[in-house]
Design brief:
The chain is of the alpha/beta class. Helices cover about 40% and strands about 20% of the residues.
């Protein structure tokens, strides 16, 4: 009986001018709960996506024992530490002092260094063979400018970025004028076409690109 009553109410709402306002509110509620779910999913300081998506493997599999690596936006140092198990040396940099303090607390290795600094403005006094940016580029305003700057630091770039068209819901939110971003600090969420164009504008050649869990994984080299 209650299901029948609810179905009748829903049918009337779908045929009324309330359909779109209700849809917008439902989408806002969905975004709200998704962000809180992501927050509460963290266990012992690490988000389960590290374990479930195994995205560290992409970076590790594209390094070798001779590499000197710069991890830009290293956060708590999780990727940097795993990279240090393979590479000759790894330097992690992040502008957030608390994140670097936590990275230094969690991870110590002779070939691993953490720096406080903003890669956009930081003056690096050494070169590298590989640069890692894992979910970092989308936070930058002048992305092409940063890519051009770091191109002089290392010939190889490993990138992981979120996609706008990871699902139909972000596209619907965008169409309705709602916030569709995974993170409110994102300056962009990519389509493959926009991503390829930005790298080309910065002077990079894409050697490999694949999509997994709604994110692009890319190996690029200076053109």
């Amino acid at each position: 009986m209650y299901r029948s009553i609810l179905d009748t109410i829903v049918r009337r709402l779908l045929a009324s001018s309330w359909r779109v306002p209700i849809l917008k509110e439902l989408l806002r509620v969905q975004s709200f709960f998704e962000r809180w779910i992501s927050t509460f999913a963290v266990e012992n300081g690490m988000h389960p996506k590290h374990r479930l998506t195994k995205y560290h493997e992409f970076f590790i599999n594209n390094l070798n024992s001779a590499d000197h690596v710069l991890d830009i936006g290293c956060g708590y140092g999780d990727v940097a530490f795993d990279a240090a198990q393979v590479a000759a040396s790894v330097t992690g940099i992040d502008f957030d002092e608390a994140s670097i303090a936590e990275a230094r607390r969690r991870y110590q290795a002779a070939n691993l260094t953490f720096l406080v600094g903003d890669a956009v403005t930081h003056q690096f006094n050494q070169s590298f063979s590989v640069i890692i940016m894992s979910n970092v580029l989308e936070h930058i305003d002048n992305r092409v400018g940063l890519l051009q700057k770091i191109k002089a630091l290392a010939p190889k770039l490993l990138l992981r970025v979120p996609m706008l068209d990871r699902d139909w819901l972000p596209l619907l939110k965008q169409e309705l004028g709602l916030d569709y971003r995974l993170d409110p600090t994102h300056r962009i969420e990519y389509t493959e076409a926009i991503f390829r164009q930005e790298l080309a504008n910065a002077g990079y050649t894409i050697k490999h690109l694949h999509v997994r869990f709604g994110e692009m994984y890319c190996v690029a080299t200076a053109a």
